[in-house]
Amino acid sequence: MVLSEFPYPMTVTMVQLTSITVYSGPFFNLWGVRKHTDMPWNYFLKIILPLAFGKFFASVTSHISIWKVPVSYAHTVKATMPLFTVILSRIILKEKQTSWVYMSLIPIISGVAIATVTELSFNMVGLICALISTMGFSLQNIFSKKVLKDTGIHHLRLLHVLGKWALIMFLPIWFYVDFSSVIQHNAMKNVDYRVIALLFADGVLNWLQNIIAFSVLSIVPSLTYAVASASKRIFVIAVSLFILGNPVTWVNVFGMTLAVLGVLCYNRAKHHSKQQVALPYTNSEWIKYNPLHNAEKFYQNGKPYPNGHLSNGYNHSSNLLFNNNSIHPGANKLLFV
């Protein structure tokens, strides 16, 4: 709704990053969120700054895709997040998946392909931006999970750090690309309170959505988060079709449905693969224990050694290793083998 009234995706991204930066500090302190310690400078340059760059770049491309194509189609394309997560996890983390997981990606790809071919308002820029943003969010999920594990930083503090640095890197670009056009727009010149209210609501809602997203990401694997994100897209697609009235055909709806079913199949296959526990041995390979016959004679009173002495000269009655810390003949004893 914001982009239909105010067609500046970069400015919408700037508003969202500003909301994360401004609201997170005081509210997280009020909620008692644990403050983070300083990170090593090398780690900050190698991981945090690229993450912050990826955050604003993925957000910009996401808004461009929604601006260029209907919301339902954009989010159908973004349902390919499990596909990107599987590929990137294989390349970056060397994670392998089961054949069922790979097969579950087929209906996702097929559904998106059908939706693309039958999309009435197709736009190549919108498709490319949707794919780029999906890949960017997949990378962000993988590396955010890594940062949470490596540094122990609270997930909400990580959101604040990424939002702040993303805003710092993005502001010069926004000033160069959008600033002059925005201040000349009728909504800004005439102080259109409807547009201002939409921008404010978009910033607050995006901040809350990021809080939920980072909270979920901190307690579930990246692949599970990808499935949860895809489930969110199901709701967005349905709402956009009924409320915004995006024009669709039955074949187009079939493609969207197939992509959604593919996500559900992927979720099932991923859950099934985690339930498979590989045991090192079968029953037939277990080593059977056979007790020693007449083992008592090896330790009771030092027998069968003469005079209660061992061959190395030690008196057996005082040897605590054999008599289990007892010199009484009737006490329980351990035999170490």
TrEMBL record:
GO terms for cellular component: membrane. It comes from Hermetia illucens. The keyword Transmembrane helix applies. InterPro entries: EmrE-like, Sugar_P_trans_dom, TPT_transporter. It is found in: Membrane. Keywords: Membrane, Transmembrane, Transmembrane helix. It is a multi-pass membrane protein. Residues 1-267 form the Sugar phosphate transporter domain. It holds the Pfam family TPT. The chain crosses the membrane at residues 6-31, 43-67, 73-93, 100-118, 124-143, 155-175. This is Sugar phosphate transporter domain-containing protein.
